Amino acid sequence: MAEYFRHPQGLLFFEVFWPQAGEQGIHLVSGEYKGEGPWKVGDCVINVLGCHGSDPELASLFSEWQSYRQMAADDYPDAESINQLSRQYGALV
User: Fold this and answer.
1) pLDDT tens-digit readout, 50-93
2) Range of 13's domain?
3) pTM of structure
């Protein structure tokens, strides 16, 4: 997840590279939000991507995302624009 927000139905999140994916990069996971890490939303378990036990493919994707963010820093939407977009999808921001 590049960005994530609580939503009345669960969790709204923007996947990495969401600016290029448009609406296909924005997802709603329905269900009760619970836990303190790992978190659970509906049938999904959400873990923090870390070094120990990480999925190498996800770690590589996240590294690419970080590089993209550094190179496209001026083109990436600011926090208020991201919050406004998330509110359009019903996020509790």
Assistant:
1) 656 567 888 889 889 999 999 988 889 999 999 999 999 999 99
2) 3-88
3) 0.86
**Does 20 reside within a domain?**
yes
* 76 is a domain residue: yes
Helical (H) or strand (E) element with 11 = strand 10-14
Tell me the mean pLDDT in the region 22-39.
91
Among 4, 28, 25, which Cα is nearest to 16's?
Answer: 25
CA distance 81 to 71: 19
The residue type of 2 is: A
26, 11 contact by CB (below 8 A): no
- Write the single-letter amino acid at 51: C
* Cα 41 versus chain centre, distance: 13
In total, how many domains does the chain have? 1
**Cβ neighbours of residue 18 closer than 8 Å, sequence gap 6 or more:** 2, 3, 25, 26
